[in-house]
UniProtKB/TrEMBL annotation:
Organism listed in the record: Streptomyces xanthii
Pfam family, one: CN_hydrolase
The organism's taxonomic lineage, starting at the top: Bacteria, Bacillati, Actinomycetota, Actinomycetes, Kitasatosporales
MF (Gene Ontology): hydrolase activity
This protein's UniProt keywords: Hydrolase
Family, per entry: Belongs to the carbon-nitrogen hydrolase superfamily. NIT1/NIT2 family.
Domain CN hydrolase: start-end pairs: 1-240
Protein's name according to its UniProt entry: Carbon-nitrogen family hydrolase
């Protein structure tokens, strides 16, 4: 299975509409070279551009949905289109990831469960999701997560319990905590004996320098590919059978003794 992680640079001088068109073109460029394409978190606005969340919030089936649906269909790829600031018809904002099938239909939407900011920013401006999301591809089962989720291992255990073999992380991770990004991506891969495809963004979001360094980790925790700091398309070939082989060779998951409840809305 061929995967492309598109590490988008968010330039504050570029309009949301222009960036949407540019990213659509980048997705189309993956036709014939990728089966799965992954984009970063909140690439339309920037993950730290809090003042833009409400102004640029979209309904689920808004302009980014339309653009990414068409791009996925044109490229003939499974597309994790990163996330958007979604405005629910009832009013709340969510950080919502979109996954499209190769025919452009929506395969899944995931509202980010763990919001970053403690008592400000995303944690205050957006509501939490409460559902774990997996997507079955012909080659593997995806588990969908977003950025700050990476710090909460129980979420990934829940996804594995639902069949996940390839864990996707769409992020806007800051450069000042880049060491955590790499460490946690590898930890989630090792403890769940799964591939981790972690796609971050480049550039600067509202004065916050982004880490870049998107990374692909195999079920043994080995780094298969890693991007640099700037905009880049990171391409890698995965062997989906390796997940089952690893879990059979070193069956640690069978020794779990503690179960965990599915996260619930506060």
């Amino acid at each position: 299975m061929r995967a492309s992680l598109i590490q988008i640079a968010v330039n504050e001088d570029e309009s949301v509409n222009s960036r949407r068109e540019r990213v659509s073109s980048l997705v189309r460029d993956q036709a014939g070279s990728a089966d799965l394409v992954v984009l970063p978190e909140l690439w339309t606005t920037g993950a730290f551009a809090y003042e833009l969340f409400a102004a640029e919030a979209e309904p689920l089936e808004g302009p980014t949905f339309d653009a990414m649906s068409k791009a996925a269909a044109d490229a003939g790829v499974w597309l994790h289109a990163g996330s958007i600031p979604e405005r629910d018809p009832d009013g709340p904002l969510y950080n919502t990831a979109l996954v499209f099938a190769p025919d452009g239909t929506l395969a899944a939407a995931y509202r980010k469960i763990h919001r970053f900011g403690f008592d400000k920013g995303e944690a205050v401006l957006m509501s939490p999701g409460d559902e774990l999301v997996t997507v079955r591809l012909p080659e593997t089962v995806l588990g969908v997560t977003t950025c700050y989720d990476l710090r909460f291992p129980e979420l990934y255990r829940g996804l594995v319990d639902r069949g996940a073999e390839t864990l996707l992380v769409s992020a806007g991770w800051p450069e000042r905590r880049r060491a955590h990004w790499t460490l946690l991506a590898r930890a989630r891969a090792v403890e769940n004996q799964a591939y981790v495809l972690a796609c971050g963004s480049a550039g600067t979001h509202a004065g916050v320098e982004q880490a870049g360094h998107s990374i692909v980790v195999d079920p043994w925790g080995e780094i298969l590919a890693e991007a640099g700091a700037g905009e880049e398309v990171l391409r890698v070939e995965l062997d989906p059978a390796k997940v089952g082989a690893t879990r059979e060779q070193f069956p640690a998951l069978k020794d779990r003794l503690l179960g965990l409840d599915t996260p619930r809305r506060p």
